[in-house]
Design goal:
Elements: E1 4-10, E2 13-18, H1 19-30, H2 40-58, H3 62-65, E3 84-86, E4 91-95, H4 116-120, H5 132-153, H6 175-201, H7 208-271, H8 280-296, H9 298-305, E5 314-315, E6 319-323, E7 326-337, H10 341-349, E8 364-369, E9 373-382, E10 390-402, E11 407-418, E12 422-440, E13 443-458, H11 465-470, H12 472-503, H13 511-527
Antiparallel strand pairs: 1-2, 1-4, 3-4, 5-7, 6-7, 7-13, 8-9, 9-10, 10-11, 11-12, 12-13
Helix pairs in contact: 1-2, 1-5, 10-12, 12-13
Length: 539
């Protein structure tokens, strides 16, 4: 429902009032319509007002309702707005908010009621009427104002006049009012936030100097913490990059080593002579290149063979192996010799040029001795029953390296076997001589432990395995003959050394002392001879 603002024209004067106000006023005036003291002008005003209300609100005639006005015709103020025009009575209806009715000229209608002064101006005594009409109308207006104020201030639960609807049919709040309330809530929340913030700021020390110092300390601490975090992040990144660079460097170094080894092997494969006509100088140059690599692998081959942990005599047979590492002949042994390390090393270095008692007596054709290494060229012949005679030509290089706890002799040989097939092998011997205490019949003497490792490998990796198997008996027999030569040469040298030592001692004066001297010399010579290796049908 919409409450209209009525504009009534009477004697060229417009009166503005709400329809609820007009209904209440008409109800009060209708009781006085039959009063003969009312002037015709007042009666005309009542008729015009009633007709206006009936036509705009109830759409009925004045005669049927003028004197039977409902007592509950008061309509509550609403904020629903629409606009229409009543041309027949020069009435304009404007939707307004009843809390502040708006006039056509833009002013407020009245504070809670219509403008009574404007109505009284219609009934001044200047028109010839008495003042009773004005007083009567004024009394009605005052009573209307008091009743309207009372109704406006009454509680809804008391159902004030002229409310006739039930309690459950209260009107809903319009959207513009809800928006207004929401905006008020937002403003209040902002005010609460500002008050809370101002309250928290009030707790800050009022001393400005102290506040500045605290702020400076906080900023300094934050800057220091930020710098520390950045430094830690940078150091972590540097460590990560360093590890990455180290790993890449190791990979590059391993690749470079592999490339160098491959190039060295390829160069060695090309440099090894392909015929027996190669000069000795070329072969010795290649052996000199190999000696350092052979010495560097001493500990590795000692550990792999297991002889580095042996402190007792051990002798094995040469075996032929064909595994993932290729084709090879291997032999290991350990000997305990009752002579110092220096004597044993000297005997080994001169063993090749010593006159041989096995095979050809002059098998060593060339021998050169230097400070710590020696070179030799040997020629031997092997005749095994059931096979063709074979000749063995060897170039030997012996390199002696003295260490604090041992002496290592790296013996490398380039051997050519010519018989049923032609085979070329590279022989590597590792001699490790360590000092030890040896128990003899005459007591404890300074002795040596001689550890020997032998490896035969083909010079040409692409050699036919069939040829090596055909010449395997010749290879093994030739090695055993060389071993016997070396052992006998070492024994003879050590026996001669023992004889010289014994001859420089006290000369026996009686026959009894002479007999004891001869027995002692024989014991020394016998102990100097280690067990020999047997070789079938050697000549």
């Amino acid at each position: 429902m919409v409450e209209m603002l009525l504009v009534i024209s009477i004697d060229n004067c417009k009166i503005h009032m709400l329809e609820s106000e007009g209904l209440y006023l008409i109800r009060s005036l209708c009781k006085s319509v039959l009063n003969p003291s009312l002037s015709p002008q007042l009666l005309q005003f009542i008729r015009e007002l009633t007709r206006e209300l009936m036509q705009t609100k109830f759409h009925c005639s004045f005669e049927s309702t003028c004197f039977n006005m409902p007592t509950t015709a008061f309509f509550p103020p609403l904020t629903i707005r629409n606009q229409s025009l009543c041309d027949d009575l020069e009435t304009m209806c404007l939707p307004v908010n009843t809390s502040a009715p708006v006039m056509l000229d833009g002013t407020s209608a009245f504070d809670g009621a219509f403008d009574g002064e404007l109505m009284l101006s219609l009934f001044r005594p200047s028109d010839g009427s008495n003042e009773s009409d004005s007083e009567h109308l004024m009394s009605l207006i005052e009573s209307f104002k008091s009743n309207y104020a009372m109704h406006d201030e009454s509680d809804r639960e008391d159902r004030p006049y002229p409310y006739t609807r039930s309690k459950t049919r209260w009107r809903k709040r319009p959207n513009d009012e809800l928006k207004h309330l929401r905006s008020q809530i937002v403003k209040l929340e902002g005010l609460v936030t500002n008050l809370t913030y101002s309250g928290s700021r009030s707790k800050v020390p009022t001393n400005r100097k102290k506040a500045r110092d605290d702020q400076s300390n906080v900023l300094h601490r934050l800057s220091k913490e930020s710098r520390r975090k950045k430094m830690e992040a940078a150091m972590a990144e540097n460590r990560k990059l360093k590890l990455m660079v180290v790993s890449q460097f190791r990979v590059a170094k391993a690749l470079q080593t592999a490339v160098d080894e491959s190039m060295r092997l390829r160069a060695r494969k090309v440099c090894w002579p392909t015929s027996s006509a190669a000069s000795d100088e070329l072969v010795f140059a290649l052996l000199d290149e190999e000696k350092e690599l052979q010495y560097a692998a001493t500990d590795k081959v000692m550990d792999e063979s297991g002889v580095s942990r042996m402190y007792h005599p051990y002798i094995s047979e040469m075996v032929f192996q064909n595994d993932k590492n290729g084709v090879s002949f291997q032999h290991n042994d350990v000997r305990v010799i009752p002579f110092p390390v220096a004597n044993v090393v000297s005997a080994l270095r001169h063993s090749l040029r010593h006159r041989s008692r096995v095979g050809p007596s002059e098998h060593c054709r060339k021998f050169l001795m230097y400070d710590n290494y020696s070179q030799a060229v040997t020629l031997d012949s092997v005749d095994i029953p059931g096979s063709l005679p074979a000749t063995v030509t060897g170039r030997h290089l012996l390199w002696s390296v003295t260490e604090p706890d041992r002496t290592v002799i790296a013996w490398s040989s380039f051997n050519e076997y010519q018989g049923r097939s032609h085979v070329r092998l590279l022989k590597r011997l590792w001699f490790s001589v360590e000092p030890t205490q040896v128990q003899t019949s005459s007591g404890t003497v300074q002795g040596s432990i001689l550890r020997t490792i032998v490896r035969f490998t083909p010079v040409d990796p692409e050699v036919d395995l069939k040829h090596i198997k055909e010449m395997s008996d010749v290879i093994i027999c030739a090695y055993k003959r060389d071993s016997v030569r070396v052992v006998l040469a070492v024994r003879d040298q050590l026996a001669a050394l023992a004889a010289r030592v014994a001859s420089t001692s006290t000369i026996p004066k009686t026959s009894k002392d002479k007999l004891i001297y001869e027995k002692t010399s024989h014991t020394v010579r016998t102990n100097a001879i280690p067990p020999l290796l047997s070789c079938p049908s050697t000549r």
